[in-house]
Design goal:
The chain is α/β, with parallel strands linked by helices. It has helices spanning 13-23, 39-51, 65-72, 84-94, 97-102, 110-122, 146-164; strands at 2-7, 27-32, 57-60, 77-82, 129-135, 168-173, 176-179. The protein starts with a strand and ends with a strand.
Length: 181
């Protein structure tokens, strides 16, 4: 079972993903993509840690998500990935994409392209359950800055590609889940 849970910031998507993981009766491994690069992010990470069960496993992987999924997926295991949005941001800055778009060049980033292809190819092959959390960023205006536009475009493409290989897709708005598939 593969599920994508999408929604806006503070919509309740992570809390829903955590409830679904808890209710599934499987061993849960929380796969975190965030990096505590500043005080605000450190506080957000601490908040997520306090909320989840102490008996869950934890894997921190900001870049090689497909590899981490392959290493930790197993029958009887639920992998909860929180979140694809931060993972995408990590890829944009770890590779050449952010620098290229800020320089006014077209984006040709092997890290970004390879990592997203690897994720899409890996997801259908994994044993066990996988729950992926991602932000829906495409409902606002078109950002003025080139890097923000690149991020919004890439996030929309990533969400579409992940949704296509998931069994269930759930949109969360105001804490309320709406099953899309």
């Amino acid at each position: 079972m593969r599920e994508l849970i999408i929604g806006g910031a503070r919509s309740g998507k992570s809390a829903l993903a955590e409830r679904r993981a808890s209710d599934g009766g499987l061993q849960v491994v929380y796969l975190a993509t965030a990096q505590a690069l500043d005080g605000e992010m450190a506080r957000r990470i601490a908040h997520h840690r306090q909320r989840r069960s102490a008996d869950w496993g934890l894997v921190e992987e900001p870049i090689d998500l497909a590899g981490a999924l392959r290493r930790h997926a197993a029958p009887g295991v639920c992998l909860l990935v929180d979140c694809l949005t931060l993972w995408l941001s990590n890829l944009l800055f770890a590779g050449a994409a952010a620098r290229q778009v800020e320089a006014g060049a077209s984006v040709d980033c092997p890290l970004l392209a390879g990592a997203t292809v690897a994720l899409i190819e890996t997801l259908p092959q994994l044993p066990g359950q996988v729950i992926l959390v991602s932000n829906e960023v495409g409902w606002g205006g078109v950002p003025m800055a080139a890097l923000a536009r690149l991020f919004a475009d890439e996030q929309g493409r990533l969400n579409q590609r992940v949704a296509a290989v998931c069994d269930r897709v759930t949109l969360v708005v105001a804490g309320l889940p709406l099953t899309l598939r």
